[in-house]
Design a protein that fits this description.
This protein has 177 residues and is an all-alpha fold. 73% of the residues lie in helices and 0% in strands. InterPro entries: P_starv_induced_PsiE-like (IPR020948).
């Protein structure tokens, strides 16, 4: 009879802490159901927002002021944000990891949306002193935020293109920058 490896190493039978395979699988199914629910709500929200945009666009036929146009633009940019969030959820489910770039893009779009809205409001507040100044400061801060989010996205893409530090063989030098 050959000796049993477990007889020689008493720790060989000890399982690592955590869930069993069935527990892990159950959590994976629950995670997929939750992501599916989030995706469903995002899709429904996008369709509702499109309907709101269509209804607001219809108001443009009788009201030629900038307010309905601003509302349509605001809602359409919100649809854009919801669709980008849907893309982020899909990417997270496909890659089985949280990917930062889609969320950075959502932040950029949301900031630009607010810049557009604030620009129109600032034009209406021209000559009103503090109200105009507040809008300009907000626009400036959002502009800085867009630049920072853009730089962060650029740096993430650059990092993803570089090989991992552990991928080089022991005698291989690091690539020059």
């Amino acid at each position: 009879m050959s000796p049993n490896p477990r007889d020689q190493d008493p720790e060989a039978d000890v399982r690592p802490p955590g869930f069993s395979r069935a527990g892990t699988r159950a959590l994976e199914v629950a995670e997929n159901l939750i992501y599916g629910g989030i995706a469903l709500f995002l899709v429904l929200s996008a369709f509702v927002l499109l309907a709101v945009a269509a209804k607001t666009s219809w108001a443009l036929t009788s009201d030629f002021s900038q307010q309905p146009l601003l509302e349509v633009l605001d809602v359409l940019l919100l649809v854009f944000i919801v669709v980008e969030l849907l893309f982020a959820v899909r990417t997270t489910v496909e890659k089985r990891e949280l990917v930062a770039e889609p969320f950075l893009l959502v932040g950029i779009i949301a900031s630009i949306k607010e810049i557009v809205v604030l620009s129109v409001e600032a034009a209406g507040a021209l000559g009103k002193g503090a109200e105009f100044d507040d809008r300009i400061v907000e626009i400036g801060l959002l502009g800085v935020l867009v630049v920072l989010l853009g730089v962060t996205s650029f740096l993430l893409r650059r990092k993803e293109r570089e090989p991992d530090e552990g991928d080089r063989s022991p005698g291989q030098a690091a690539p020059h920058r």
